[in-house]
Amino acid sequence: MAKVYEKIADELRTEIRAGQPGPGERLPSESDLSRRFGYSVPTIREALRVLQAEGLIVKQHGRGNFVREPRVLVQRSNARHQWEKDRARKPQEKREKTGATEHDTGLTINDLVFHAAYREIEAPKNIAEALGVDEGTPLVERTYRTRYSAERNPFNLVTSYLVRAHVAGNSDLLDDTNEPWPGGTWNQLLTVGIEIDRVEERVTARPPTAEEAEELGLPPGTAVLVLRKTSYDTEGRVVEMSDVTLPGDRTEMLFTTHLERW
Predict the structure, then answer these.
(1) Superfamily of domain 74-254
(2) Is the pTM of this model over 0.70?
(3) CA–CA distance from 45 to each of 23, 24, 42, 100, 113 (Å)?
(4) Packed helices 41-53 and 4-17: angle between N→C axes, nearest 10 degrees
(5) 219: pLDDT confidence band, cut at 50, 70 and 90?
(6) Phi then psi dihedrals of residue 122, to 5 deg
(7) Which residue has the higher pLDDT, 124 or 51?
(8) How many of the other CB atoms lie within 10 Å of CB of 31?
(9) Residues spanned by CATH 3.40.1410.10 within the chain?
(10) Which CATH architecture fits 4-67?
(11) Sign of the CA dihedral 53, 56, 61, 62?
(12) 108: part of which helix (H) or strand (E)?
């Protein structure tokens, strides 16, 4: 049998999903809800905690509870890799007009706020093994954050690794002030004669760390998807590896597999 606070949460949930109140609007105060439902303020708070945990409302200290604004959905498809490879060889003018985030969200380049930071590191054991190089090999570690200008949190958390020796032939690839790079990593590697032949992606799910939850703006109880993307060149070498942390409440993974016909 449902508890009283669960019944109250059910009624408020139904109203929110019907748009009353709508996204960004304030819910009645706890005391007003207490009078409406005829139960104590602590019971109302339990109902509101349920809705907060579901990501339907957010509590702003000193202001009250608000219906959570819908977040832009990211649909990440395996078809994006061929799109990225095709784009890598297009003229710069065309490469500058769109990127992978725009492809995944339907937003335009003017809708986005982008940040990149590079640093050179020596490969720790786990990263060295993933890249197929010796521990201590010089790497270029790159972190990326892209967000919708109307939102506070990035779409995902990306850390990318390149073997420095693979890209040192073009000094521009060692300088983060050249970001955002038209055509992204695929074009960057093309400038040093590297063609990506295949991409492997492994996806797992887990609870976020406290830092990840804060940076991604996750509702309580929301999991993250952790994607490791490994790119191989035509000689079978790993030429780029990325760890991507994706928010579980606004990411859709779409896999389409074309099968050979009988």
Answers:
(1) Chorismate lyase-like (3.40.1410.10)
(2) yes
(3) 20, 19, 5, 42, 36
(4) 50
(5) confident
(6) -95, 135
(7) 124
(8) 10
(9) 74-254
(10) Orthogonal Bundle (1.10)
(11) negative
(12) none
